From TrEMBL:
This is Hydroxymethylglutaryl-CoA lyase. PROSITE patterns: PYR_CT. Residues 8-286 form the Pyruvate carboxyltransferase domain. One of its GO terms (molecular function) is lyase activity. It comes from Caldovatus aquaticus. The lineage of its organism: Bacteria, Pseudomonadati, Pseudomonadota, Alphaproteobacteria, Acetobacterales.
Amino acid sequence: MPDFPKFVQINEEGPREGFQIEKGPIPTERKVELIDALSETGLTQIQTVSFVNPARVPGWADAEEVVRRFRRKPGVRYTALWLNDKGFLRALAAGDLHLRGSISLTASEAFLLRNQQRTLAQNYEAQHGMIRLYLEHGVPVDRGSIMAAFGCNFQGEVPVATVVDMVGQILDLGRQYGQEIRTVSLADTMAWATPESIKRVVGAVRDRYPDLTLALHLHDTRGMGIANAYAGLQMGVAIYDATVAGLGGCPFAAHRGAAGNVCTEDLVFMLHEMGIETGIDLERLIECARLAEDIVGHPLPGSVKMGGSLRALRERLQAA
């Protein structure tokens, strides 16, 4: 029997991930409304905005205004996404965000060219400048990430050895600047992962770097999100990115259909039913999922917001 984690950390990315891909403009006040509601669920990390080129991602042209307006709740880390030095400096200037430096590599050059207009070699060299910039501003660098770690819509299969090698590159880059990389996130950016490939890639990285903490960023485009999270749990992974109601998707991944991350409330439901703690109030989270659906104005793929939690049903049956 697998040794499941007793506690799982869920990093909510619904606001950032979700509003970047919506076709119609989402009013700033409604973005703030969702962030404030999520703050009351017990989540301890919420990725709020993207500091990216508004010409390419117009959904986050108002990133600074959103950061200025949402309420901060003690105990919650409010984070942001950026892809380059300009984005980081915007995040720094916005103020009152939890900023941690991350070394970001991509396992597919074809996707990297589409997403950031860089080759693998150019992106690797760019990390040196980013690390120096983080340290110049007193921001520690303690994590890394690998996009397209399980496959790519433009390049195809990604060899496991490529991912393991890139983890080594991340650790080496950190050491060059006296930084200890404690966590590396493996991202299934284009939803190629299956439970078997999750086990294969996570297992290979664990075999090579047994003391490294791993996190998973799982997209649900092909309906594998929850199954892949379960496979991650079987491998001992205890940190997951997720999006409320299944919001979102990468604008540059060439997907049709629901392309968001694994749904937060569905993941929390499964974890609680397995006896794994999250610190999250599922009923409040379900309310947030329904709010998210109202904000975007169309159905979202999460299931538990429709079916409800079993806890509420059990309580009604017991009362009857």
